[in-house]
C-alpha cells in the first residue's frame, strides 16, 4: 500500500543558511495560513541555546499541504547527537532536503547527519538557498556538495540528486538557474516527484516507533512517531513493547497529526502518518506501540551509555541562598527526573548526600547544555567537576574511549594535533575536506576530552568543529596527569558579553552570561593551568580580562591585581566553585566594598 498523499522529509541545514525562512515560506504558500495571518511562531527554531551554539538538539514537526499532498517536515538535530536521536528522526522520513547557502556552500557541521541520511538510503534533494545574493556561486557550491556526497559514500542514485535553486527570503524556487519563478512551487513539485511516498502494509497489525516524547501538563506524555504498519484509532487499546522485551497494555486517549505548526486531533491515522498520541503515561523513546493481539517490536536505535558524570547539588555556598530564591533539593530532583523523560542517554542517581545528585551523560557538552538550560530556567545549584565513569570488565578497570572527529581550517591542524597528543589522543585518520577545512579523526580516552572543548574553540578562533561518539572501553592506563589548581580573577570591572560556559579544566563549570556584571578582583572561577583560561568567554567589548593565579606557573605569568591569593581562596569553599550568578556577584560586591 502506498500513501501517495504523504511525503515525509527532514531538512538538514547549517545555522543561518535559511531553514526557518524556507519553512516559513512553505507554510505561507501552502495555504495553511490565511492571507493576512502572520507567521510569528518560528517553530523550527528550536530553543535559544541551540541557536546560540549553532546546533539543534530537539526535533520539531511541521506539516504543509501542497495541493493533495501532505508534506511532513521534521527538523534534524545538528552535529550533536547524545542518544541516537539523529537516526531515530531520520527513520521517520523517506527523503532529506540538504539546504545550502549559495555562497557559503556545504558546511562540515552537517556531515554527521548527512552521512547517517545517506547510510539510511534516503533520497537527497539539494536546495541551494539565497541565490539572490550578489556573491552567490551556485555551480561551485553544487560541485562541493557532489564531492561531499562522494566522500560520505553516497550511492549512484543519491549522487544523481535533484537540485532546487531558491531564495527563501523572496519565496521563490526554480529547478534551472535561468528559469523565472514567482513561488516555491518548483520546490513542492520536486519534493513530491523525488521523495518516495511512504509504503508498507496497511492491513497488517499496528506498529509505531516512538521517536520523541513531548510532555504537556494537562495530558501528560505525548509520544511522537511514524506509523510503520497498520492503522491507529483514538481510544484504541494497544500493546507497548519496551526495549527490554516486556510488553504492557495501554490506550490511546488522544490522537493527533500535524498541520502547519500545530497538532490537530484526528479519529484515525494510517501507515505513513507522523502522529502524536497521549494516554500512555509511562511511554518511552524507543518503544513500539503495537497491536494488542500481535505485539511485535520494531528494532530500536541503541543508545550509548553515559561516560561522564557530575554532581549537582543544592547551592550551599556562602554567597547563595541568602536572598531567598535558592532551589530546594526537591525542586532540583523533580527537574532532573523530568529531564529523563526526553533526554534518553542521561542518568540521574541519588548520592550519599541528600541534597546532591549524580548526573551522568554522554560527555561534557551533553551535561553542560543541561546545566545551562536549567540555569536559564532560574535554578541555582552547584556542579562538581566532570568525572569519567570507569567500569570493571572481567576484573580489569576500564575507561571509556571516544572517537573524535574534528574539522578545522588547515592553519589550525598543528595546534590541534599537538594539544590532543598531550591529552592521550591517537590519530586514526586525516584528510583534507571541503571548504578549506581539514578533517582529523582520533581515538581518545574520555578523560582526555574533559575541558578540551573550550581550549579547542580558543585555539581555532571559534572556527573548529568537534564531535565525538562512543568507541568502547579499554583497560585504564594510570597516566592521568596531575594538574595544579589556580584561581581566576577579574581585574577590570565590566560586563561579560558572550553567553559562555567556562570549563575550568577538571575543576568544574562556570557560567558567565551576557550582561552579567563582573567586578574587579572578583573570582570568576578555578582553573588548573594558565592556558586553560578561555578568554573567549568575555569578548573584547566591555571586557573583563581574566587572569589565572594559584598555580606557580600562572602566578608567575599574571599576579592577581586586586586580591591576594589568600583572599581569593577564601571564597572557594573546598572543592566547590563560586558560580557567577547575579546574586553571587551582588554578594561579592558587598564583601569587596
Ligand atoms: P536558519 O538558521 O537556517 O533557520 O536561518 P534563517 O531562516 O533564520 O535565516 C538566516 C538569515 O538568512 C536571516 O537573516 C534570513 O533573513 C537570511 N535569509 C534566509 N533566506 C534568504 C535568502 O533566500 N536570501 C537572502 N539574501 N537571505 C536569506
From TrEMBL:
Q: Which domain of life is it from?
A: Bacteria
Q: Which GO terms describe its biological process?
A: gene expression; response to cold; ribosomal large subunit assembly
Where the record annotates domain Tr-type G, the positions are: 4-199
According to the UniProt entry, its GO molecular function terms are: GTP binding; GTPase activity; ribosome binding; rRNA binding; tRNA binding
The positions annotated for binding GTP are 16-21, 129-132
Reaction(s) catalysed by this chain's protein: GTP + H2O = GDP + phosphate + H(+)
The keyword Isomerase is assigned to this record: no
Q: Where in the cell is it found?
A: Cytoplasm
HAMAP family the UniProt entry points to:
BipA
Please give the family membership noted in the entry: Belongs to the TRAFAC class translation factor GTPase superfamily. Classic translation factor GTPase family. BipA subfamily.
Q: What does this protein do?
A: A 50S ribosomal subunit assembly protein with GTPase activity, required for 50S subunit assembly at low temperatures, may also play a role in translation. Binds GTP and analogs. Binds the 70S ribosome between the 30S and 50S subunits, in a similar position as ribosome-bound EF-G; it contacts a number of ribosomal proteins, both rRNAs and the A-site tRNA.
Quaternary context: Monomer.
Q: What is this protein called?
A: Large ribosomal subunit assembly factor BipA
Q: Where does this protein come from, organism-wise?
A: Caloramator mitchellensis
Amino acid at each position: 500500500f502506498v500513501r501517495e498523499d504523504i511525503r515525509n522529509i527532514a531538512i538538514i541545514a547549517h545555522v543561518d543558511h535559511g531553514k526557518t525562512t524556507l519553512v516559513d515560506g512553505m507554510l505561507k504558500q501552502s495555504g495553511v495560513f490565511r492571507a493576512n495571518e502572520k507567521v510569528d511562531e518560528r517553530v523550527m527554531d528550536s530553543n535559544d541555546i541551540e541557536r546560540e551554539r549553532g546546533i539543534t538538539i530537539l526535533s520539531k514537526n511541521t506539516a504543509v499541504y501542497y495541493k493533495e499532498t501532505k508534506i511532513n517536515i521534521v527538523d534534524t538535530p545538528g552535529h550533536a547527537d547524545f542518544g541516537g536521536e539523529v537516526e531515530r528522526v531520520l527513520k521517520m522520513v523517506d527523503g532529506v532536503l540538504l539546504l545550502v547557502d549559495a555562497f557559503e556552500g556545504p558546511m562540515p557541521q552537517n556531515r554527521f547527519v548527512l552521512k547517517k541520511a545517506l547510510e539510511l538510503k534516503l533520497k537527497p534533494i539539494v536546495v541551494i538557498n539565497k541565490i539572490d545574493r550578489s556573491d552567490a556561486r551556485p555551480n561551485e557550491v553544487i560541485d562541493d556538495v557532489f564531492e561531499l556526497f562522494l566522500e560520505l559514500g553516497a550511492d549512484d542514485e543519491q549522487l544523481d540528486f535533484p537540485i532546487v535553486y531558491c531564495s527563501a527570503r523572496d519565496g521563490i524556487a526554480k529547478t534551472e538557474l535561468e528559469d523565472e519563478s514567482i513561488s516555491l512551487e518548483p520546490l513542492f513539485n520536486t519534493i513530491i516527484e523525488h521523495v518516495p511516498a511512504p509504503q508498507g502494509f496497511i492491513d497488517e497489525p499496528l506498529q509505531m516507533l516512538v521517536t520523541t516524547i513531548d510532555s504537556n501538563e494537562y495530558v501528560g506524555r505525548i509520544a511522537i512517531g511514524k506509523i510503520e504498519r497498520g492503522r491507529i484509532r483514538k481510544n484504541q487499546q494497544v500493546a507497548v513493547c519496551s526495549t527490554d522485551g516486556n510488553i504492557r497494555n495501554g490506550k490511546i486517549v488522544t490522537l493527533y497529526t500535524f498541520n502547519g505548526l500545530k497538532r490537530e486531533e484526528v479519529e484515525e491515522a494510517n501507515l505513513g502518518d507522523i502522529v502524536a498520541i497521549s494516554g500512555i503515561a509511562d511511554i518511552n523513546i524507543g518503544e513500539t506501540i503495537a497491536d494488542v493481539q500481535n505485539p511485535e517490536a520494531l528494532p530500536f536505535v541503541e543508545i550509548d551509555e553515559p561516560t561522564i558524570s557530575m554532581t549537582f547539588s543544592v547551592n550551599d555556598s556562602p554567597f547563595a541562598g541568602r536572598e531567598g530564591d535558592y532551589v530546594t533539593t526537591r525542586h532540583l530532583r523533580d527537574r532532573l527526573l523530568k529531564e529523563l523523560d526526553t533526554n534518553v542517554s542521561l542518568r540521574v542517581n541519588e548520592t550519599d548526600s541528600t541534597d546532591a545528585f549524580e548526573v551522568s551523560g554522554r560527555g561534557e557538552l551533553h551535561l553542560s547544555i543541561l546545566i545551562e538550560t536549567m540555569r536559564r530556567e532560574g535554578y541555582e545549584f552547584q556542579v562538581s567537576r566532570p568525572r569519567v565513569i570507569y567500569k570493571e570488565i572481567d576484573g580489569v578497570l576500564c575507561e571509556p574511549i571516544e572517537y573524535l572527529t574534528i574539522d578545522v581550517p588547515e592553519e589550525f591542524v598543528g595546534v590541534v594535533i599537538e594539544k590532543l597528543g598531550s591529552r592521550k589522543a591517537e590519530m586514526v585518520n586525516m584528510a583534507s575536506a571541503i571548504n578549506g577545512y581539514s578533517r582529523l579523526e582520533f581515538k581518545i580516552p574520555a578523560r582526555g576530552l574533559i575541558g578540551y572543548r573550550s581550549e579547542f574553540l580558543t585555539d581555532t578562533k571559534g572556527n573548529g568543529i568537534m564531535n565525538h561518539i562512543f568507541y568502547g572501553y579499554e583497560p585504564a592506563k594510570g597516566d592521568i596527569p596531575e594538574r595544579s589548581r589556580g584561581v581566576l580573577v577579574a581585574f577590570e570591572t565590566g560586563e561579560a558579553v558572550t553567553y559562555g560556559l567556562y570549563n575550568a579544566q577538571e575543576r568544574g563549570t562556570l557560567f558567565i552570561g551576557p550582561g552579567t556584571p563582573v567586578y574587579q578582583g572578583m573570582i570568576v572561577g578555578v582553573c588548573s593551568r594558565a592556558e586553560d583560561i578561555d578568554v573567549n568567554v568575555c569578548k573584547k567589548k566591555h571586557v573583563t580580562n581574566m587572569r589565572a593565579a594559584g598555580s606557580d606557573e600562572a602566578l608567575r605569568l599574571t599576579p592577581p591585581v586586586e586580591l591576594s591569593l589568600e583572599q581569593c581562596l577564601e571564597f572557594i569553599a573546598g572543592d566547590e566553585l563560586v558560580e557567577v550568578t547575579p546574586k553571587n556577584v551582588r554578594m561579592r560586591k558587598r564583601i569587596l566594598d
